C-alpha cells in the first residue's frame, strides 16, 4: 500500500503571458520506509511537484483535471487536491507531511528562538502540552546530534552554524512524526564534509522512524547514496524511473545518460567531460513531441518532435519515456 | 609551461581587526594566514577547501582586491613585473588589465540594464584600451566569438540568457582586456551539471589557446580533479597540501584532504561506506585551534599536533603537505576506507 500516490499530475501557472506548464503527466508512488529520489536540473519541476503534495504552490496554480494525489496514512485516504478549506490542509502541512528546505537560514524565523519555533508547530499539530512539547523538542535536537540541546533550544538560528541549522531543521520536521518527509535539496548549501554527516543522519532516521521520503536533488551522487528508487525529471516530465541501481548503472533515457556522462568522476581523471548539448528550453516555449528532442543526440526528425513518448515499462522493470529506449528503429538499422 | 611563476606569494597575510581586548591589545582574524605559493605560467591552479577556509580572500588578495597585511606577492609576465604589496596608481591600472576575476553567480554578476555588447565592452571603455567605437566593437565581437556568443546575442539583455550562457558572457567580459591571469571563483558552482561541463571545457580551451594562467577556486574536488594541473587545499587560512593533481588524488598526504575525498558521495550505490567521516565543523577563524589547526577534527591527531603547528614541506617530489605525520600515513584513494597505517612487519 503506497503512502502517497500521484497520478497524471499536471501543474500550470496563470501568468501575464498566459498559462505556463510547469509539470505534465507526472505519476509516482512512495511506500512507507521508502526513499524516492527526484533528480533534475533547475527548471525541471522538482520543487513544484513536491510543493503540490502539500498544496504549497501559489494562488495562480491550476492543477490538471485528471490529476490526483492520494495520501494514505493511519488507514485513512485523503485526496490532497480536493481539499478546499485551509483547516484541512493544515493537517497535512507539517502534520502528515513535513518538509526540509535547501537554505535553512531562510526557513527559520530570525527573531524567534529555534526552540519556540519547534514548540509552536508541535502545539498546532499534536495534543502535547507546552512542557511536553519543549521536552520533545530538546530530545529531538539531541537525536540529530546537536551538542548541549537545552542550551541550543533557547538560541536563535543565526547562532547556529550551517550544518547545525540543517540538523535543527530535520529535528523540527521529524518531531511531529510525519508519515512523509519531503527533503528539497537538503544538502546543496552544505560543505561536502557536513553533507556526508547530514546524509548519514537522514539514512539512520528513515530506518528508525520508517517514514517515506521524497528526496529532491540535482546531485546523482547524493541520490546513489540515499535513495531506493529514482525518478529523473526534465522540463516537467518524468523521463525515467527505476531502482537506483537500474537508473545509475544502466540508464535508458538519453537525458539520464547525458547527465551521468557530464559528471566529473574521480575514478577516471582522464575522461573528457561531455556536456549535454544546448540549454534547457524556456518553459514558455516547450518543445512539441518529446520535451528532450532539442538536445537529444538520437532524436529522429518527424517522430520525436511530433509524438510525445509515453512512459513504458522495460523487461528489467524500469520505466522510460523515450521512443528509442531499446535502440533505433529497425528500418534505420537495416537500411 | 614555463617554470617562471606568474604569481608568487611569500608568507602572505590578510588580517582583519576584530577590536580590542580588555588591555587594549588589538586582536586580528587572519583570513589568509601566512601562505606561500607559486602559480606557474599557463597553469590551471586549483584551490579547494570548505566555506570559511579563506579561498576567496586569497584569490582577492592576489588580485589586489583584498588588503595585503603582511608578506610579499609578485606578478610577472613577459612584459612587466609588479610588486602587489606596493602597487598603486598607473601600475595598479596596468595590473587590472592583466589580472581579472570571474564570479560565481552569473545571475548577480551582470547588470540587467546593459546589453551583452555593453557589458563586454565596459572594461575596454573604463580602461581606455581602444581608440574608438569601431575598434571596441571589433574586439568585443572577436572575444564573443571565442566564448561562442553570436552577433544576435550581443544585442540582447542578460535576462534572455540561461545560466550557462550568462557565465559565457562573464568569461567574455573577463577576457576582453587581454589578461594573463584569471581568478575563477566558484565559476561553475551555480550551474547545472549538464551545462557545467560546457563551461569547464571553455575555460580549459582558453587556457590552452591563449596561454592564460588560472586560479580556479572551488569546493568541488571532482571538478578540480578534472580541470586543474596543480591543486592546493586550504584549511582555516593555510595551505595544508599542495601537489600536482594526479599525485594529490592518487595519494593525499594530509588527513584533511583524505577526509574531503572520502566525503564525496559515490555514484555507485553499493560503494562501501567510508568510515572516515569528519566530525564537527570548521572552527571559527577568529579563534583557531592551537598547534595544527586541523587537530580538533583529525582522527589521527596526537599530542605533537596540539603542541606545534606543522610547516608546509616537501614530503614527496613536488608534493607539499603540512602534517607532522605526512610520511607515516598512507591515504591511497583506491583503498575505499583508508585505515590508519597498520604496521606489517
UniProtKB/TrEMBL annotation, chain A:
<dbReference type="GO" id="GO:0005886">
    <property type="term" value="C:plasma membrane"/>
</dbReference>
<keyword id="KW-0813">Transport</keyword>
<dbReference type="InterPro" id="IPR013563">
    <property type="entry name" value="Oligopep_ABC_C"/>
</dbReference>
<keyword id="KW-0472">Membrane</keyword>
<protein>
    <submittedName>
        <fullName>ATP-binding cassette domain-containing protein</fullName>
    </submittedName>
</protein>
<dbReference type="Pfam" id="PF00005">
    <property type="entry name" value="ABC_tran"/>
</dbReference>
<comment type="similarity">
    <text>Belongs to the ABC transporter superfamily.</text>
</comment>
<dbReference type="InterPro" id="IPR003593">
    <property type="entry name" value="AAA+_ATPase"/>
</dbReference>
<feature type="domain" description="ABC transporter">
    <location>
        <begin position="6"/>
        <end position="260"/>
    </location>
</feature>
<dbReference type="GO" id="GO:0055085">
    <property type="term" value="P:transmembrane transport"/>
</dbReference>
<dbReference type="InterPro" id="IPR050388">
    <property type="entry name" value="ABC_Ni/Peptide_Import"/>
</dbReference>
<keyword id="KW-0547">Nucleotide-binding</keyword>
<dbReference type="GO" id="GO:0005524">
    <property type="term" value="F:ATP binding"/>
</dbReference>
<keyword id="KW-1003">Cell membrane</keyword>
<dbReference type="InterPro" id="IPR003439">
    <property type="entry name" value="ABC_transporter-like_ATP-bd"/>
</dbReference>
<dbReference type="GO" id="GO:0016887">
    <property type="term" value="F:ATP hydrolysis activity"/>
</dbReference>
<dbReference type="Pfam" id="PF08352">
    <property type="entry name" value="oligo_HPY"/>
</dbReference>
<dbReference type="GO" id="GO:0015833">
    <property type="term" value="P:peptide transport"/>
</dbReference>
<keyword id="KW-0067">ATP-binding</keyword>
<dbReference type="InterPro" id="IPR027417">
    <property type="entry name" value="P-loop_NTPase"/>
</dbReference>
<dbReference type="InterPro" id="IPR017871">
    <property type="entry name" value="ABC_transporter-like_CS"/>
</dbReference>
From TrEMBL, chain B:
<dbReference type="GO" id="GO:0005524">
    <property type="term" value="F:ATP binding"/>
</dbReference>
<dbReference type="InterPro" id="IPR003439">
    <property type="entry name" value="ABC_transporter-like_ATP-bd"/>
</dbReference>
<dbReference type="InterPro" id="IPR027417">
    <property type="entry name" value="P-loop_NTPase"/>
</dbReference>
<dbReference type="InterPro" id="IPR013563">
    <property type="entry name" value="Oligopep_ABC_C"/>
</dbReference>
<dbReference type="GO" id="GO:0016887">
    <property type="term" value="F:ATP hydrolysis activity"/>
</dbReference>
<keyword id="KW-0067">ATP-binding</keyword>
<dbReference type="InterPro" id="IPR003593">
    <property type="entry name" value="AAA+_ATPase"/>
</dbReference>
<feature type="domain" description="ABC transporter">
    <location>
        <begin position="7"/>
        <end position="261"/>
    </location>
</feature>
<dbReference type="Pfam" id="PF00005">
    <property type="entry name" value="ABC_tran"/>
</dbReference>
<dbReference type="InterPro" id="IPR017871">
    <property type="entry name" value="ABC_transporter-like_CS"/>
</dbReference>
<dbReference type="Pfam" id="PF08352">
    <property type="entry name" value="oligo_HPY"/>
</dbReference>
<dbReference type="GO" id="GO:0055085">
    <property type="term" value="P:transmembrane transport"/>
</dbReference>
<dbReference type="GO" id="GO:0015833">
    <property type="term" value="P:peptide transport"/>
</dbReference>
<keyword id="KW-0813">Transport</keyword>
<protein>
    <submittedName>
        <fullName>ATP-binding cassette domain-containing protein</fullName>
    </submittedName>
</protein>
<keyword id="KW-0547">Nucleotide-binding</keyword>
<dbReference type="InterPro" id="IPR050319">
    <property type="entry name" value="ABC_transp_ATP-bind"/>
</dbReference>
<comment type="similarity">
    <text>Belongs to the ABC transporter superfamily.</text>
</comment>
<dbReference type="GO" id="GO:0005886">
    <property type="term" value="C:plasma membrane"/>
</dbReference>
Amino acid at each position: 500500500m503506497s503512502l502517497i500516490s500521484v497520478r497524471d499530475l499536471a501543474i500550470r501557472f496563470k501568468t501575464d503571458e498566459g498559462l505556463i506548464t510547469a509539470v505534465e503527466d507526472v505519476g509516482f508512488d512512495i511506500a512507507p520506509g521508502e526513499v524516492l529520489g527526484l533528480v533534475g536540473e533547475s527548471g525541471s519541476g522538482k520543487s513544484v511537484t513536491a510543493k503540490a503534495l502539500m498544496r504549497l504552490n501559489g494562488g495562480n496554480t491550476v492543477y490538471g483535471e485528471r490529476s490526483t494525489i492520494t495520501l494514505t496514512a493511519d488507514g485513512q485516504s485523503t485526496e490532497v487536491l480536493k481539499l478546499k478549506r485551509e483547516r484541512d490542509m493544515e493537517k497535512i502541512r507539517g502534520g502528515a507531511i513535513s518538509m526540509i528546505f535547501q537554505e535553512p537560514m531562510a526557513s527559520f524565523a530570525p527573531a524567534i528562538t529555534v526552540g519556540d519555533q519547534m514548540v509552536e508547530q508541535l502545539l498546532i499539530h499534536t495534543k502535547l502540552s507546552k512542557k511536553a512539547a519543549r521536552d520533545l523538542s530538546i530530545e529531538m535536537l539531541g537525536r540529530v546530534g546537536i551538542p548541549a540541546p537545552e542550551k541550543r533550544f533557547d538560541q536563535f538560528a543565526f547562532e547556529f552554524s550551517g550544518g547545525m541549522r540543517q540538523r535543527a531543521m530535520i529535528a523540527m520536521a521529524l518531531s511531529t512524526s510525519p508519515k512523509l518527509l519531503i527533503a528539497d535539496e537538503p544538502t546543496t548549501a552544505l560543505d561536502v564534509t557536513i553533507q556526508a554527516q547530514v546524509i548519514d543522519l537522514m539514512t539512520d532516521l528513515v530506518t528508525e522512524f520508517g517514514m517515506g521520503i521524497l528526496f529532491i536533488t540535482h546531485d546523482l551522487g547524493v541520490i546513489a547514496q540515499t535513495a531506493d528508487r529514482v525518478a529523473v525529471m526534465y522540463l516537467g516530465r518524468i523521463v525515467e524511473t527505476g531502482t537506483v541501481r537500474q537508473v545509475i548503472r544502466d540508464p535508458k533515457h538519453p537525458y539520464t545518460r547525458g547527465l551521468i556522462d557530464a559528471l566529473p568522476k574521480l575514478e577516471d581523471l582522464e575522461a573528457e567531460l561531455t556536456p549535454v548539448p544546448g540549454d534547457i528550453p524556456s518553459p514558455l516555449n516547450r518543445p512539441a513531441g518529446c520535451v528532450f528532442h532539442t538536445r537529444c543526440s538520437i532524436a529522429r526528425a518527424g517522430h520525436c518532435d511530433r509524438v510525445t513518448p509515453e512512459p513504458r515499462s522495460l523487461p528489467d522493470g524500469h520505466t522510460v519515456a523515450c521512443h528509442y529506449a531499446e535502440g533505433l528503429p529497425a528500418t534505420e538499422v537495416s537500411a | 609551461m614555463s617554470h617562471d611563476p606568474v604569481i608568487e606569494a611569500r608568507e602572505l597575510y590578510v588580517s582583519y581587526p576584530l577590536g580590542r581586548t580588555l588591555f587594549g591589545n588589538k586582536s586580528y582574524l587572519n583570513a589568509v594566514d601566512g601562505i606561500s605559493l607559486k602559480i606557474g605560467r599557463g597553469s590551471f591552479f586549483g584551490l579547494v577547501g570548505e566555506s570559511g577556509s579563506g579561498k576567496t580572500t586569497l584569490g582577492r588578495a592576489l588580485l589586489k582586491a583584498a588588503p595585503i597585511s603582511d608578506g610579499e606577492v609578485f606578478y610577472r609576465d613577459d612584459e612587466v613585473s609588479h610588486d602587489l604589496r606596493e602597487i598603486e596608481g598607473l601600475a595598479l591600472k596596468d595590473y587590472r588589465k592583466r589580472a581579472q576575476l570571474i564570479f560565481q553567480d552569473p545571475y548577480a554578476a551582470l547588470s540587467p540594464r546593459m546589453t551583452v555588447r555593453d557589458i563586454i565592452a565596459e572594461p575596454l571603455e573604463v580602461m581606455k584600451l581602444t581608440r574608438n567605437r569601431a575598434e571596441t566593437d571589433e574586439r568585443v565581437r572577436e572575444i564573443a566569438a571565442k566564448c561562442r556568443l553570436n552577433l544576435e546575442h550581443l544585442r540582447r539583455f542578460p535576462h534572455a540568457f540561461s545560466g550557462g550562457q550568462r557565465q559565457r558572457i562573464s568569461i567574455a567580459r573577463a577576457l576582453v582586456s587581454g589578461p594573463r591571469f584569471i581568478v575563477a571563483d566558484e565559476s561553475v558552482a551555480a550551474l547545472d551539471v549538464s551545462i557545467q561541463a560546457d563551461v569547464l571545457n571553455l575555460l580549459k580551451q582558453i587556457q590552452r589557446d591563449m596561454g592564460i594562467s588560472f586560479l580556479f577556486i572551488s569546493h568541488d574536488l571532482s571538478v578540480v580533479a578534472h580541470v586543474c594541473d596543480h591543486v592546493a587545499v586550504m584549511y582555516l587560512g593555510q595551505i595544508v597540501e599542495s601537489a600536482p593533481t594526479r599525485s594529490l588524488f592518487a595519494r593525499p598526504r594530509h588527513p584533511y584532504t583524505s577526509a574531503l575525498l572520502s566525503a564525496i558521495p559515490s555514484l555507485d550505490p553499493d560503494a562501501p561506506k567510508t568510515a572516515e567521516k569528519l566530525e564537527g565543523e570548521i572552527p571559527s577563524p577568529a579563534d583557531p585551534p592551537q598547534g595544527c589547526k586541523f587537530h580538533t577534527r583529525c582522527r589521527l591527531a596526537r599530542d605533537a599536533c596540539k603542541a606545534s603547528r606543522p610547516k608546509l614541506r616537501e614530503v614527496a617530489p613536488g608534493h607539499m603537505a603540512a602534517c607532522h605525520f605526512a610520511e607515516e600515513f598512507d591515504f591511497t584513494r583506491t583503498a575505499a576506507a583508508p585505515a590508519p597505517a597498520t604496521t606489517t612487519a
